[in-house]
Design a protein that fits this description.
By secondary structure, the protein is an alpha/beta fold. The protein contains 8 helices and 9 strands. The strands form 2 sheets. Strands 1, 2, 3, 4, 5, 6 and 9 form a 7-stranded mixed sheet that branches. It holds the Pfam family CLP_protease. Keywords: Hydrolase, Protease.
Length: 227
């Protein structure tokens, strides 16, 4: 029987490859086995981002989320976010997957959780944010060519409603308040929206709790032991 993959050196090599290639690691040396997923840079959809940009690719993330749900060894999920946003449908798809995982899950916003990163930030059972992190709430926009017809505006409205509805369903912020923050015109230069720092995000009930890595892990441990 080939047991080379079970040696500490081989396990360390595989963990190193996962971190370098996918930005993930399964924490198995603590009291419980936690899968750590990072969402960084731009959330990439069907079109590749320009070369040189940090991206989170859905073809990397989706299999990991399926593995978290199906692997009996994995007891919980921790999602670390520092994202500028990106593809709307991809961000919503990943958020829906995280929300549907039956095991304890937590998100931690570090740096930023902007735009379509907001549904990801609120998708887990419990969300955390560090005091210095920010979250930018703004409307859906499109940088490419669009048709100047009423159907286009209706499509944008539907897309925005999907985002607003998801955020309201997975956080303590009502749809009306999210829309108010999204359409605010006195804060962003050459744009509309609102920037929330960590404390304000909690005060507005967008994020559940102010805290860091140890707080998120402690919450996950408690939830795992409760089940």
């Amino acid at each position: 029987m080939d047991t080379a993959k079970d040696t500490p050196a081989e396990q360390h090599r595989m963990e190193k490859e996962d971190i370098e290639d996918l930005g993930t690691v399964t924490l198995s040396r603590g009291g419980h086995v936690i899968h750590c997923l990072t969402v960084i840079g731009q959330i990439e959809g069907h079109t590749e981002a320009p070369q040189g940009q940090k991206t989170t690719k859905y073809e990397h993330v989706i299999p990991q989320l399926v593995a978290v749900q199906e692997d009996p060894r994995i007891e919980g999920l921790l999602v670390l976010l520092n994202t500028v946003g990106g593809d709307v449908e991809t961000g919503l798809a990943l958020a829906e997957l995280i929300a549907s995982i039956s095991k304890p899950s937590a998100t931690l916003v570090l740096g930023g959780g902007h735009s379509i990163g907001i549904p990801l930030a609120v998708s887990a059972r419990h969300s955390f944010i560090v005091p210095t992190a920010t979250m930018t709430v703004h409307p859906v926009r499109h940088s490419g060519l669009i048709l100047g017809v009423p159907q286009t505006m209706h499509c944008f409205e539907q897309m925005q409603q999907r985002i607003t509805g998801f955020v309201a369903a997975h956080s303590g912020m009502p749809e009306k308040r999210y829309t108010q923050l999204m359409l605010h015109t006195g804060e962003l230069v050459m744009d509309m929206g609102t920037v929330l720092d960590g404390r304000r995000a909690v005060k507005e009930k967008l994020i559940d709790e102010l805290g860091g890595l140890s707080d998120a892990l402690a919450w996950l441990y408690r939830e795992i032991e409760r089940e």
